[in-house]
Amino acid sequence: MKALVPKEVIENKIILIRGRKVIMSVHLAKLYEVETRALNQAVKRNADRFPQDFMFRLTNREARYLVSQSVIPHGKYFGGSLPYAFAEQGVAMLSSLLNSKRAVQVNIAIMRAFVKLRRMLSSHRKLASQLGLLENKVDKHDAQIRGIFDAIRRLMTVHDEPKRKKVGFLK
Fold it and tell me: In what order do the strands lie in the sheet with 15-17?
């Protein structure tokens, strides 16, 4: 079955703001094929479903930063108001507001993208931890190897032998 929205498109819309992985309301509206204004109105009418950890409105500074980083093409893209940023739970809550078949399918794809991202981050943390352990082991072995090389160098150093009396018959 062909995906309604390619997973790469969704994954590219997940960004990090305030230390949280979120999708902007303008991007969600495009994915759901609804107007951003209509999505925002549905959210405002059901504000009690969206606490701060589910959704928050960007500040002017955050919006300018997104434009400067080319996440958003220009300020007019927001349609005259600051966009909302939806965390994974906020996107899940949106599915209860938007009842179209497309909204349901897109929400499933978005949830899978968040899960995949979480798994990737988890595996990266494990890899970073294992790399740290390996570096510590290498550091310990480096000291031992350095000691071996120092000993070999000392053995290779030519020492001036003390002058000995000649032994044997003298002429």
Answer: 15-17, 20-24, 84-86, 55-57
pTM of the model: 0.62
Q: How far apart are CA 117 and CA 14, in angstroms?
A: 9
> Which of 2-6, 52-56, 103-107, 143-147 is least confident?
2-6
Rg of the chain, C-alpha, whole Å: 32
Taking alpha carbons only, the member of 104, 93, 95, 17 closest to residue 48 is 93
> What single DSSP character describes residue 51?
-
pLDDT band at 1 (very low <50, low <70, confident <90, very high): very low
- Between 169 and 64, whose confidence is greater? 64
Helix (H, G, I), strand (E, B) or coil at 8: helix
Round to the nearest angstrom and report the end-to-end CA distance of the chain.
105
Contact between 65 and 75 under an 8 Å Cβ cutoff? The reply is no
What three-state secondary structure class fits 85?
Answer: strand
Residue 103 to residue 38: CA distance in whole angstroms: 13
φ, ψ of residue 15 to 5 degrees: the values are -125, 165
